[in-house]
Specification:
Blueprint (H helix, E strand, L loop, with lengths): L3 E27 L9 E17 L2 E15 L5 E15 L10 E13 L4 E27 L3 E28 L7 E18 L3 E16 L5 E15 L8 E17 L5 E30 L2 E30 L5 E12 L2 E5 L2 E16 L4 E15 L6 E3 L3 E11 L4 E33 L7 E6 L5 H7 L4 H8 L10 E6 L2
Antiparallel strand pairs: 1-6, 2-3, 3-4, 5-6, 7-12, 8-9, 9-10, 11-12, 13-20, 14-16, 15-16, 16-17, 18-20, 19-20, 21-22
Length: about 500
């Protein structure tokens, strides 16, 4: 019988850092005439965003924005906000070894320092980083069967979650929202944050139908009294996304990120600023997986000819459980040393998340960065940042493999009360989503070659007596004596492929 091999491809998901580029923010700012003088600056911030990007070879060109904002107090003790939106383009060398064109391009603020140089002037010095990373589809080809030329195989069935497709898409959500019944028209936007929530994801004919929400929290000053008010707006998201190779049998790990947010007050028909123009650049990322069972060949040899076996180690993953939970974070923002008497604005601006396993439980944990505008006992408006830790624990899937997860966490709602000790008792509702994978190291055969020019020399004895030790594998004994495991089992009338204790075995000749 001619020698033949069958091969199968396994597609794995590899995430990695691809490139970054720093952009300096150096500005000497003079306040416009319509703003009053500066008495005290509460906070200067620089919020970068990515509006779009293009990939050309090993280079990404990103169209970026940077919202520079200064919150300050005037002589009358009222809060004012100066802001300026800077637009710039940045190139990132991705240096990829593959042809990946699906990237997540984002931005983060590195640092921001300021110096007041006059009643109407201040200087800003800082830096932001534009970065690109991707989930890449890596294909591994392995031998799953072989016949002919006396080949014998050591096989193991292995179940894996095969990566079918990686999808990344940028899109923009725009809407004009009515602020509703306000005590006075809007003046200046003080701060804003947004979360993108996926509610439903359907697969139809290589397309993903996305339904979700954009939740926006906005704090602004009143145009007459300067009082700070807060709003929540919800915008529905409906998108059709091209997703080749993804079908109805796939399981999708998807996430929405707000990469750039722009909010501007707008006049309504009565001439008051009671409308909000909202524009959000969204980044959608998804990985589609399909479970499959493969015949994994661990070792092979021919009883007739010398055999060249090429092996490789890969790490395969299997979806064990899907996370789609909503939980409550209870924490304390300590303002006891500030003499807080009233909170004007409480915003959640950033959230980190991590995954760990201990004993039979897994934990999703991280920190929520909050920004608080408050009034102290002297009646002065102040600003503070506080990190609120959170932790969510559940029973882990039962498996002897290592568990991994990259959880996606989004803030749905938040509230607070001031207790008598000058502390904020905080309640933040968080949605966690993602897949828990079990990870396994697999030794696979990538190529199998039988060399017919090198015939194996065989012993002339019909039977060989072998004294086996406990724990020996019949595969190793069969390979040593150039026979098969099946022949040893039949000759010795046994069924176990591993020797349990010392014994004598008859090794038949091929």
């Amino acid at each position: 019988m001619d020698f033949n091999t069958q091969k199968e491809c396994i597609c794995l998901c590899e995430s990695g850092y691809r490139g970054r580029s720093e952009h300096a923010v150096d500005m000497d700012i003079t306040l416009p005439e319509y703003l009053p003088d500066i008495v005290r600056i509460l906070r200067c911030s620089c919020v970068p965003g990515v509006k779009s990007y293009q990939v050309n070879g090993d280079r990404i060109t990103a169209e970026c924005t940077c919202l520079v904002k200064a919150l300050y107090i005037n002589e009358q003790g009222r809060l004012y906000c100066y802001e300026q939106n800077i637009q710039f383009a940045k190139q990132i060398e991705v240096n990829g070894e593959d042809n990946c064109r699906d990237y997540f391009v984002g931005a983060k603020s590195d640092y921001m320092n300021y110096r007041v140089s006059g009643q109407r002037r201040f200087e800003l010095h800082g830096a932001v980083t534009i970065f690109a990373k991707s989930n890449t589809k890596k294909t591994c080809e392995m031998v799953t069967d072989a016949t002919g030329d006396g080949i014998t195989l050591k096989c193991e069935k292995s179940e894996v979650s095969n990566l079918k497709s990686v999808v990344e898409k940028f899109f923009t959500v725009t809407e004009t929202c009515d602020a509703g019944a306000l005590s006075e028209p809007m003046g200046t936007i003080v701060s804003a944050s947004a979360s993108g929530i996926i509610h439903e994801l359907k697969i139809v004919s290589d397309k993903l139908f996305l339904k979700g929400e954009l939740i926006i929290h906005t704090a602004f000053t009143g145009s007459e009294t300067g009082e700070i008010q807060c709003l929540e707006n919800v915008i529905n998201i409906n998108q059709i996304i091209e997703a080749s190779d993804i079908n109805e049998t796939c399981r999708i790990d998807a996430h929405l990120t707000v990469s750039d947010l722009e909010i501007k007050p707008r006049f309504d028909l009565s001439g008051n600023k009671n409308l909000l123009d909202i524009s959000a650049c969204m980044s959608f990322s998804a990985c589609g997986f399909e479970n499959m069972t493969t015949n994994c060949i661990k070792d092979a040899y021919s009883v007739k000819y010398e055999t060249d076996v090429k092996k490789s180690v890969i790490y395969t993953s299997l979806i064990e459980e899907e996370i789609n939970d909503i939980f409550l974070c209870r924490g304390v923002a300590d303002l006891s040393s500030t003499g807080v008497s009233r909170v004007h604005s409480f915003m959640c601006t950033d959230l980190t998340s991590g995954f760990s396993v201990f004993d039979s439980n897994y934990t999703i944990s991280g920190e929520i960065m909050t920004e608080i505008i408050y009034e102290d006992i002297k009646g002065e408006i102040c600003f503070a940042q506080r990190a609120i830790p959170y932790e969510y624990t559940r029973s882990a899937p039962e498996t002897d493999r290592a568990l991994t997860c990259t959880p996606h966490c989004d803030i749905l709602a938040r509230s607070y009360v001031i207790n008598g000790d000058g502390q904020l008792d905080v309640r933040i509702e968080i949605k966690a989503s993602g897949f828990i994978f079990s990870e396994k190291e697999n030794l696979i055969i990538t190529d199998l070659i039988v060399n017919k020019d090198k015939i194996k020399k065989t012993d002339t004895a019909t039977l060989t007596v072998y004294f086996a030790d406990g724990g020996e594998a019949l595969w190793d004994i069969a390979e040593k004596y150039n026979t098969t495991v099946d022949r040893i089992l039949r000759e010795n009338k046994i069924t176990d492929t591993c020797v349990k204790e010392k014994c004598k075995l008859l090794i038949p000749k091929m």
